[in-house]
Design goal:
Distance between the termini: 7 Å
Radius of gyration: 25 Å
Structural class: alpha+beta
Oligomer: single chain
Helix content: 40-55%
Shape: globular
């Protein structure tokens, strides 16, 4: 429901923005005295000022004309989408002749790295304050490194570091504190868990970079990528097409609680089929995701422990990275639609298509692409 809602909101509003693009141009120059590049009815400007609701309805009829049913609602369409995903899954691991494995640490090489990775923030689950642990690392550090290396070699994550404590934080002081939706859960994990995850994240990220597994158009949670790089690319593409006299349509998709709905079985399949993990490395991630639990702490009170059976762990180091890997099949679906560009920032998806004013029929391709995305998202348990 939320996917469709976001889709309609942005499609209704953005055509007037694209009309502005075609009139101004990428260098902010004033337009020449000529008619609009986008073939909008002349009365739309008056509607925008006097009746925005009617304006959105008129734009909807232009941008989303009546069209036949979804291409992917019939069994052959579903099979086509599944075949595309399976084919991409078979091809991708071939880029990695040697599956990445988690290597144990060398005490002398990693000592400084681990000390610098420690945070001084407190977690109720820590036996010792992390600040005290950091100052005494010279004495007890080798024992911690032994725990980390044993976890990496055996592919097992200690159970006690898979428990989190959630602290509800009111999003805004003006919100109703009696409603659960007014709070944002802040997750705290044991500091040893953070150290172990940083060690694994460093090795996994190196393998992803070496074998070019990241989606090229994913700007979230990646070094040298940010919201600025995503905005720069999308804006540059739209303004370049505007200078060429093209019309553009941009669709922005937002997901509801995407990080909390990740299916663990599907995530492990992504790690195996798309990243190429196997053996103890894959077993480590299976152990990391299984038998997780959390409790909620408010003031001096704490709830009983509850199992966490889906989603990437909040407040974790690996959570954002695992979420990006969970989205890997989506890039092959998006790139299969020639003529449609896309860019992602974590779970925020930007789709855009440019065309000449007389090629409005190309919007049907965008409609089909959105159907394909929705079909995949349903299978990935997104909403």
């Amino acid at each position: 429901m939320s996917i469709q809602l976001s889709l309609y909101i942005y499609i209704y509003i953005h055509p007037c923005i694209f009309f502005h693009f075609s009139r101004v141009g990428s260098r902010g120059q004033q337009p020449k005295q000529r008619g609009p590049d986008f073939p909008l009815p002349s009365h739309l400007g008056q509607l925008l000022r006097g009746n925005p609701k009617a304006f959105h309805g008129q734009v909807r009829d232009i941008v989303l004309p009546a069209c036949p049913g979804s291409t992917f609602r019939s069994p052959p369409g579903w099979m086509c989408l599944e075949n595309l995903t399976r084919e991409a899954s078979r091809r991708h691991p071939d880029q990695m002749p040697e599956p990445p494995q988690l290597a144990p640490l060398d005490v002398e090489e990693q000592r400084v790295y681990i000390v610098n990775s420690m945070k001084t923030s407190a977690c109720p689950l820590d036996i010792l304050p992390s600040s005290l642990f950091k100052s005494a690392f010279q004495s007890i550090g080798p024992s911690v490194l032994s725990i980390i290396n044993a976890s990496l070699v055996t592919g097992q994550v200690p159970a006690y570091i898979k428990n989190a404590v959630f602290h509800p934080l009111l999003k805004k002081t003006s919100l109703d504190a009696s409603l659960h939706s007014s709070f944002r859960p802040i997750s705290k994990l044991p500091f040893i868990s953070k150290i172990l995850e940083k060690v694994v994240a460093k090795q996994l990220t190196a393998a992803l970079d070496e074998h070019n597994i990241y989606d090229s158009f994913q700007s979230g949670f990646r070094r040298a990528h940010s919201t600025e790089t995503a905005l720069l690319r999308v804006s540059n593409d739209l303004l370049t097409h505007s200078d060429a006299g093209d019309c553009s349509v941009l669709v922005l998709l937002d997901l509801t609680a995407a990080f909390d709905t990740v299916d663990h079985h599907l995530l492990l399949e992504r790690l195996r089929d798309w990243v190429g993990l196997s053996g103890s490395a894959l077993e480590w991630f299976s152990s990391y995701l299984s038998e997780r639990s959390f409790s909620v702490a408010v003031s001096k009170f704490r709830s009983s422990t509850t199992s966490l059976t889906h989603g990437v762990p909040q407040g974790s180091v690996l959570g954002p990275l695992l979420f990006l890997l969970y989205l890997l099949p989506l890039q092959h679906i998006l790139s299969s639609f020639k003529g449609i560009s896309y860019h992602l920032y974590a779970d925020d998806i930007q789709l855009y298509i440019s065309f000449k004013p007389h090629e409005m029929s190309k919007l049907q391709l965008l409609h089909t692409c959105l159907d394909s995305i929705k079909t995949w998202m349903v299978g990935a348990f997104f909403s």
